[in-house]
Amino acid sequence: MDIGDTAPAFTLEDETGTPRGLDELLEGGPVVLFFYPRAMSAGCTAEACHFRDLVSEFKALGAQPVGISRDAVDRQAAFTAEHSLGYPLLSDPGGAVAEAFGSRRNFALFPTKRKTFLIGEGRKVIGVVTSELSMNAHADRALAILRENAAA
Fold first, then answer.
1. Cβ–Cβ under 8 Å, residues 126 and 3
2. Do 30 and 126 touch, CB atoms closer than 8 A?
3. Which one-letter DSSP state was computed for residue 136?
4. In sequence order, what E strands does the chain have?
């Protein structure tokens, strides 16, 4: 999945067990869909909390972050509650959506690559951020891409 591609439609349960579809999420503006390996791990907690801390900046640009991992709904709920994340976390237990976005790997401890996709109108991918080691890079770069697109 790269810039200019059309993101696949999908529906997954969020941390409350409510089905959430990409098309529905896009009704509110661009979606910053970030894949992370494992809820509650140190790196994923740092990344998710950085998105949380910048959520007002995303909202000011009409966008919303949405996290996605292979964690079960109850683990996503605990992750959200423990860190007051304030945005949807989607459960992709079989990894089908991660696979469709090229973010799945066959490594049991960390089954998902850390990647972020900025998705706009018509499910068009308008930005991609990849970094396995910089937990702040995903939210920071996503904001920069959204600002660049708003100025264009």
1. yes
2. yes
3. T
4. 11-14, 19-21, 31-35, 64-69, 89-91, 115-119, 125-130
Give me the helix-helix angle, 42-53 and 137-151, nearest 10°: 30
Among candidate residues 7, 12, 22, 44, the one labeled active-site is 44
Q: Where along the chain do its domains lie? A: 11-135
Burial annotation 103-136 (CB, 10 A radius, 16+ → b, else e): bbeeeeebbbbbbbbbbbeebebbbbbeeeeebe
- Full-model pTM: 0.92
- Give the pLDDT of residue 111: 62
Is the CB of residue 58 less than 8 Å from the CB of residue 146?
yes
- Angle made by CA atoms 60, 46, 97, in degrees to the nearest 5: 75
Is 44 part of the annotated catalytic residue set?
Answer: yes
> The tokens of 88 are what?
């949807």
Q: Read off the pLDDT band of 106 (50, 70, 90).
A: low
Asked if pLDDT for residue 3 goes beyond 80, the answer is yes
The dotted CATH code for 11-135 is 3.40.30.10
What's the pLDDT score for residue 134?
A: 80
User: How far is the C-alpha of 123 from the C-alpha of 38, rounded, in Å?
Assistant: 25
